[in-house]
Every structure is written in structure tokens, then in C-alpha cells.
Amino acid sequence: MYNILEVASCHGGDINYLYSLIEKFRFFNKNENFGIKFQPFKYDLIATKDYSNYSIYKALFFNKNEWKDIIQKAFFTKDIWLDIFDEYSLEILEDNLEKIKGIKFQTSILDNLIIFNRLKNIKTDNLHLILNIAGRNLEDIEKILEKYSNLHFKEVYLEVGFQGYPTSLEDCGVSKISILKKRFENIKIVFADHTDSQTEEATILPILVGFENCDIIEKHIMLDREKTKYDFYSSLTFEQYEKFIEMQKKYFKLKEQDFINKREVEYFKKSVQIPVLNKDKKAGELIDIENDFEFRRTDSLGLNLLEIKKLVSEKYILASDKKKGETITEEDLKKANIAVIIACRLKSSRLKRKALLKIGTLSSIEMCIKNVLKFEDTNSVVLATSITEEDSILKNYTYNKSVIFHQGDPDDVIQRYIDIINKKNYDVIVRVTGDCPYLSKDICKFVLDSHFEKGAEYSNGIGAAIGTNVEIMNSLCLKEIKKYFPRADYSEYMTWYFQNNSEVFKLNYVDLPNKWKRDYRLTLDYQEDLDLFNKVEEYFSKNNINYTIDNLFEFLDKNPEISKINLNMPVRYYVDQELIKTLDRETKIKK
User: Fold this and answer.
1) What digits encode the pLDDT tens for the residues 73-117?
2) N or C: more exposed end of the chain, with fewer CB within 10 A?
């Protein structure tokens, strides 16, 4: 906070009083943002002889040499400010210009054309200007600012407050400050306090105002009440002013404190209710933020809710078994080992060996793998096929050496998954099939994020075009299914084992953004599917476009004749009612 010590007329025209005042208040230094303000004027330029205070003005007069000496003495410790009342004030300004920090116009002087025009001839670019706007409405203030901006001062301030000998608390003008701050955003505000110096308000009010609202505080000072003839109403003695500044430093220092202090952190840690489990949980399970916890104060070490949420968002799961009532620590969690498993075989009946058919320059299974390798937050990609001799050839179509080739049970796909899960210790599986060359990394991320956020056991996207969706499932749940189905003969349709058992597993159906919802068919079962895919690849290749779901949909949206190529091809598990009845019956868990 910048402070201006206002001398005004407390000296009564006694230069020795003024020297003593400067000496007494020398401890308040400009290096700590203190300035002092004087009021040089000439009695016959500020008023006419018939004015009631003319004789007082005459008694208050100091000549130019006296002012030079006064300013020099004060300049050693403080910035110098001058109140401008008349032409004589401007002469004092010019004579001491290199020592003057700034000048102030009381509201009664703002319309003085002689002073304004004379200022045009004074170098003001290093001077600060305070404009007191007592009695002025907002429109007047705006015009005044515009007028004085033409004089090119270094900075212009607006001052609130007037001398009421003393000014009552209700009239101090505090309510104006927020209005001025809002109307004139880049203008700093000076609060000139003139409350009765014998009341507590003389120190409390400017501190309250300065704490939030103003940028500079102006306070009247004096030596003592008995020796001060004028302007003692709102003036503080040295002892009062010293106490005022001590209070100011004490309370304003609070504004510089850290947003959160150490003791606050200790209080929070000691008293905060932290999550404790409301059920037993197994190692490998995801955490359901909404449903797995109750909140208690406890002396046990444990993560708070925000810390758990952060780790869950980073795909952490339980690393060890936990009991009901226990807290969760960072050591209880581990980063989930997430794999994309692509189920693929060559025994297709409708489109022979479709996994090896070319889409552009790649086989369909390689295109599938190429796009799966773009998935985020996954650790491995597995091409999972059967142990038959026919399917063994797929090891030559893994596209990238990082892809794991796995052969397992020909018919029990769940067992095939569990075998690779046990071998590689996967925790969470992204399930896709090899007949979907246009799988989307964007949809995968969206569904995978939701899977962890909800602490789900199975998730898939709602509204996706056939062939662009993914399913997310937890390894523990696949093993749970296996307990009830030693031979999961229908696990080619793995989805049913989850969706048909909603009372057993926590299912999470993720509503996808509209931009990813379409009725297109983007899975490979028929020649028409292959024809469409090659049209897409021809367009992408010709225009040097990389595949994204957005680029694909943009092309198909603009070319409906292409999207209609395979539109009427049936999806068996949508239309075959006998198959649907069989799956509903054979995949139901019976406890």
C-alpha cells in the first residue's frame, strides 16, 4: 500500500512547526512507499480579499525560498506531492520539478482553466496526478479524465473523500470505490480519510478500505492537538500514525500469505473425513468412487477423495485385497495392465478367409491392428486366434512386431482370453474383433475413461456405427464367468455373458457424443462390405488422408451412395431370433 502523509494547513504558517513535523515523521520512508503532500498557494491568487478565510490564507503563506527548503528537507525521506490551487502552486512545482513525485487537484480546482492551460507548458510526463472527484457524477468524472489525459501525466488516479471538519463515517465515500473500480478498470483509487482523529474509525476505516478496495491511502498528520491551529480534526499525531501503519502492515501482510498455509494443511489432514471402504474388495478390482466408500474421520493413513479420483483417472486399480472399513493408500494401488485383445479366425462362412482380404494395400486384419495400435492408455495388443493349422497363418499378419500372437481354444473364446490374461497378468481387456478394420481410438478412449471413472466391470459405447465400437471388461469378471461356464461354447458372442447378467456384473453403457453416432455398417462379413471399404481407402489414399473416425464419417456423410453399398446386409445377432433365444438361455448365470 502506498501512503501519503497530508500536511495541509496544520503548520498554521509556522515554518519551524513544519520543520519539526518533517523531522518527527522522517521514519516513514519513500523506500517503503511513503509520500508527503504540501499545499503551496498564494492568498491573493486563491481567494479575493473579501473571502472569509483570506486572512488565514495570508498567514499560511510561505515564499518560494521557504518552499524550496521545505521540499528539500522532506525529499530526503519521502516522495513529494503538491496540492495545486493557483498559479503560485504551479510556480513552486516548476521550481522544484525534479523532486516532485506528483500533484493533486481538489475537486474545486478541476475547472480552473488558467491552471489547466498553464500546465500545458510544464513537463508532466514524469508526474503522477491525483484528481479528487468529490461531488462529481460518473459522467463528469469521465469527461474530467478525458480532459486531463491530454496533459500526458505518467499516471492518473481518482481520489474519494472530502474534508468535512471532520467527515462523518456515512459521508466518507467508501461506497463509491467499487463503482469507480468497475467503471474505470485501469484507474487506481486514492482514499482520502477525514474521519475524526479522536475516534477508532480514524485508523480502522482506512485499513478496511485499503484491504480490498483502494490503492493509496491519504491521511492528515500533525505534531499534537494543542499546538495545531488548523486541520487538526482528522489529523493523526506521530504516535497515532505509527500505530496506524503498524496495523496496516500487520493486516495487509495477510494478503500476501500462501493460499493454503501449513497449519491449514495440518488442520485439514487431521479433521477431514476420508474415504473408507464400505465393502470388501479384491486385488485387481476397479474402484467405484460413487459406491465403494463411506466417509469417516480416522487416524489411519489414507488417500482423500481427490487423490483417489486422480489415481483412478490415471487408470489405477487395487493391488491387494482390502477389507470393509479400511482406507486406501497409494501402496494399495497399481497401474492397470490394459490389453487390447483382437479375436480373429479364418473359418468365416459368408466371406472366405476374410481376415486376409485386401483393403487397399493391407489385409483387413492388418488394417484392424494398425488402427488398434493407435489406442491410448493400453499396454499391449494381442492377436488371439485358435490352435488350428488354418489359423496359424495369421502369425504372418500381425502388422507390427510389438503385437503379441496368441493361439488358444478354437471355440471357447473366453478361455482363449483367460489363457493370455494369466500369461501376461492383464487386468483390463479392450475386446475387439478382427473383422472391424475401422476401430476408433477416440471411441476407445472415451469408453475406457468412463469404465474407470464408473469403476465398471463391463463397458461399451451406445450409438456407435457397427464395427467402430469397443467393449471393456475386467479380467476378474471373465474368470468369474468361467466358474459358471467351464465350457463357454457361445463365447464368440462374449457380449451376452455380461449383458445377460446385469445382476452379477456392474454394466456401464456409455452414451457417445453425437458426432460418433451413425447407422453405418463398418464390419466385414460380405463382399459389399469389402467394396465399401476399398472405396474409402481409395479416397483416403488419393487425398493423402489419415484415418480417423471423424474423417471417415465426413466422407460417408458427403457420399451417401457409398454408405448405401452395404446398408442392407444383415447382422446375424441382430436378426436371427433363434440365435438370440439360444444366447439368452445359454449365457445366463444360474446361481
Assistant:
1) 999 999 999 999 999 999 999 999 999 999 999 999 999 999 999
2) C
Rounded Cα distance, 90 and 115, in Å: 8
C-alpha cell recorded at residue 422: 494369466
CATH class for the domain made up of 2-256 = alpha beta
**Would you say domain 262-335 falls under CATH 3.40.1010.20?**
no
Quick check: 308 and 289 in contact, CB under 8 A? yes
Res. 443: pLDDT tops 80:
yes
Report d(CA 1, CA 209) in Å as an integer. Answer: 11
**CA-closest candidate to residue 363, choices 553, 522, 537, 570:** 537
The CA R_g of the chain, rounded to the nearest whole Å, is: 41
Q: Which of 38, 35, 34 is nearest to 60 (CA)?
A: 38
pLDDT in tens, 323-353: 999 999 999 999 999 999 999 999 887 889 9
On average, the pLDDT of the chain sits at 93
Q: How far is CA 339 from the centre of its chain?
A: 33
Handedness of CA 364, 369, 370, 372 (dihedral sign): positive
Q: Which residues of 303-320 are buried (b: 16+ CB within 10 A; e: fewer)?
A: bbeeebeebbeebbbbbe
Report yes or no: 6 and 192 within 8 Å, Cβ to Cβ.
yes
> CB–CB of 226/194 below 8 Å?
no
